[in-house]
Amino acid sequence: MSLKKIIILIIILAPFTIKAQQSYPDVIVVGQMKDVMWNGQLYGKLQLDTIPQKKHLYGLGPAAYLKGELMIMDGKSYVSTVVNDTTMIVTSTYKAQAPFFAYTNVNKWIETILPDSIINIQQLERYLDATTLNQKRPYMFKLSGVVADAKIHVFNLPEGAVVKAPEDAKKNQTYFKLLNEQVDIVGFFSTNHQTIFTHHDTYLHMHLLKADHQKMGHLDEVKFKAGSIHLFLPQE
Asked: Model pTM?
């Protein structure tokens, strides 16, 4: 076959290849992190129960007025709220609002084992960026397995509190530790959403749910147990 015919064939097949690799729905982002952290827009911009398609739905974000954390995994919605410095409550409900939130529907996943060399958030970020260069972004992903050590937070802003800078929100986070726990993590990856849905120094936003559903929150730090973490990337 001549070079000209090969080039024509590549041009014809290229759109179908791209479509096959990027057949999953777009991630919808409502609101912006910077509007909450710098402009004090704490009110709910999305009512979770108004999301039309809940089958195989995934999502994450903080609760309105920064009074908890929200996470949707495979159509089930979880809300965590702080009781005291050592206790939280996790309830399963769509009756919640978010000042900023990201969600999508994923029907099929591509499952792999995370390499043993990936044990923290920074390494995970670099790994995802390098291995999904040709993948549609932003995208949601999942992790499932054992964390040797992890730290999560849940917002617990006092009634009537005002946020004018990120420090105002951060000082009202309650932190919880996990040791050798089976967990599920729903994550958001994008190189174009810093200060919109990820912090300015990362491409990731992740929420962790303990297997027994007793703890859920924003993942701040983690040490993955090597060989135990299953990574799920969207296929359709």
From this structure: 0.90
